[in-house]
Amino acid sequence: MNPWMTYLIWPLIKFSIAFIAVQALVAAMNWIERRLLGFFQARLGPNRVGPWGLGQIIADPIKFLLKEDFVPARAEKVAYYLGPILPLLPSFIVFCLIPFGPPPTFAVTNNINVGLLLIFALTSTAVYGIILGGWASNNKFSLMGGLRSAAQMVSYEVPLGLSIVGVLMLTQSLELEEIVRYQEMNSWNVFPQLVACFIFIVAMNAENNRTPFDLPEAESELVAGFHTEYSAMKFAFYMLGEYSLMIVNSCLAVTLFFGGWSLGMGGIGFTTEVMQKMGWVGGLIGTGIFVTKMMLFLFMYIWFRATFPRFRFDQLMDLGWKFLIPLALANIFVTGIVLLAFPSRLYGDTVIAVGEIMLTVIGMIVIALTLVLLFKPKRPKVINASRVSEA
Fold first, then answer.
1. Rounded-to-integer distance, Cα 384 and Cα 363, Å
2. How much of the chain is in helix, strand and coil states, percent to nearest 5?
3. Which helix (H) or strand (E) holds 274?
């Protein structure tokens, strides 16, 4: 094949398709979230524009386009305009690196041996847009909101990065396709890395400024944070970046812990090889499996928003630094010890991953103990009647 076609035109076509699909999903997510929140809170949600309120997807961008584009008189103009764009660009570029289905057709770029590292490097730059948005407005409340958001995002990037170390120790690869193939041949990483999966899910919620970690955008807090002085499409860009990063994090969770586009484990089931033999049909099925798993994580974001109350800032920082980071370090330590103490063994023609089985058992025990502590019946308080009468 022509090198221009292989390395430029065909990747650009695939990226354009992925980009359009993601933006359509972002628009749909806005409607889905509002309808589901209405369902959770016993109300209707958007239902005035079009059938079932579907016209709201079109009405919202029109509203943002027609709003007054306000710019503070004393704002730092260059930084002010860069603020909403910086969180948006990395979330778009990252979709070049995520395989949405069995390669080579359903992955924009193939065989990037540091793909996971590059994704984390790109997405971590989103914090600069939030800092710029707070500082460039020349509003002290926006600045404090931006710094608070930066502190939150930097703090939770640490456990987010540490949570994937156990996965890397198991798969011994930074290539996303190899991580998926490893899970096909062994087991989904959520089983031997249950604790890491829990840390990843909590940290990715905090990274996205989503409830219960939505202090940077909380109206009841210090004004509303970094986007106080933004209006019209510049405000919409911040929201677009947030929803795009939600999709990125959901894709990463599916790829790292839940088998990616496959439904196979131990080399049995709907694996990449089975799909590739089916041609385009198999590829579309694999993409459908991947998108379904991703949508479950997006539903989880909405469920959390409808369920949990917002943390105080000191509680948010305590959870990250005092609990998640030590837990992530302990998970790395235990994973290393178990993998060294219980290496894989060959029984006949079958390789038994003894270390993974031990890690799965340990993870199940941790989950069971956690559930016991959470649902342990509490003793009712006994109030002394004499003291009540004295009061």
1. 43
2. 70, 5, 30
3. helix 272-277
Tens digits of residue pLDDT in 255-287: 999 988 888 888 888 888 888 888 888 888 888
Terminal C-alpha separation, the chain:
89
Domain membership flag for residue 15: no
- Altogether, the residues listed in the chain come to a count of 391
pTM tops 0.70, yes or no: yes
* Long-range contacts at 140-143 (CB < 8 A, ≥ 24 apart): 141/222, 141/223, 141/228, 142/223, 142/225, 142/226, 142/227, 142/228, 142/229
The answer to whether residue 130 sits within a structural domain is yes
Asked if residue 57 is part of any domain, the answer here is: no
pLDDT tens-digit readout, 55-108: 888 888 888 888 888 888 888 888 888 888 888 888 888 888 888 888 776 777
Domain that holds residue 233: 67-379
User: What does the block give as tokens for 250?
Assistant: 């959901």
Write the CA distances from 208 to 147, 168, 203, 215, 245, integer angstroms. 15, 23, 9, 11, 7
Q: What whole-number distance in Å separates Cα of residue 288 and Cα of residue 270?
A: 13
Asked if 30 and 36 count as a contact pair (C-beta separation under 8 A), the reply is no
Question: How many domains are contained in the chain?
Answer: 1
Distances (CA, A) of 341 to 188, 327, 346, 364: 21, 21, 16, 19
- 234 exposure class (CB count in 10 Å sphere: 0-12, 13-18, 19+): buried
Beta carbons within 8 Å of 221's beta carbon, 6+ residues apart: 145, 148, 215, 313
**298 residue type, one letter:** L
